[in-house]
Write the structure tokens for this entry.
Amino acid sequence: MRAKLYNGLTRSKVAALYTLARTLYTKARKSNCTMSEISFQNAQFLISAPSLQQCPPETGREVAFAGRSNAGKSSAINKLTGNGKLARTSKTPGRTQLINFFRLDAESNKRLVDLPGYGFAKVPLKVKQTWQRHLSEYLYKRKTLAGLVILMDIRHPLQEFDTMMLNWAVEAEMAVHLLLTKSDKLKQGAAKNILLEVQKTLRQSQIDDLVSCQLFSATKGTGVEELKRLLKDWLSDAQPTASQACQQQDA
Ligand code: GDP
């Protein structure tokens, strides 16, 4: 019976196979744990950076949030992290034009990034141009950026700022998620229709493989779990970032 079970394998080979199986099992468990352990509740302000050069070291992974002023970015980040003070940090005078980093874990390996949003009218052209250069540089060159969330008030989707960010991200082959915020301002049917319209636009532009979209309300909590699931997926080490995927293709 024993001889049949081993079927030609020596005892040491069986032991080696057993060790290998255990290692693989432990690795698989660890990677599952990493994904489920990502938590937004302990997010803390890390640093503000005026340009790519001043951003934290490129280790780990991060997800960036962009939106016109008043789109509901602070409210969404507060809702996601359960910390009402966190996004206010980014609104502190002097920090509104900066790239603000929040760490999710003690090692700062997972980060949320609050990109500066602005009302175009209030910003002088020169400031606007410098800001755009820093933003595009960040989107194109930041190796640890796993995805971009663009927040748009559901009543005014895909305005100039949104399409500019969307085009940059798509050019950089970056995964994008559109949040149609303040969905509670519309009746359910009307909100759903706008979601369908935006999804149709993405399909027609043939970017629906890279860009997804959902309804969101910080007030009612609509879509919070859907957003968390997506962010955990993006932040999980199992997924390559756009820049890593490009490197793999080039190799
Ligand atoms: P930010 O400038 O993009 O950071 O936008 P804020 O988060 O400060 O929100 C701008 C305004 O929209 C504030 O008055 C918020 O209270 C309001 N707001 C944000 N999210 C929601 C939402 O989900 N529902 C409703 N009804 N109002 C919201």
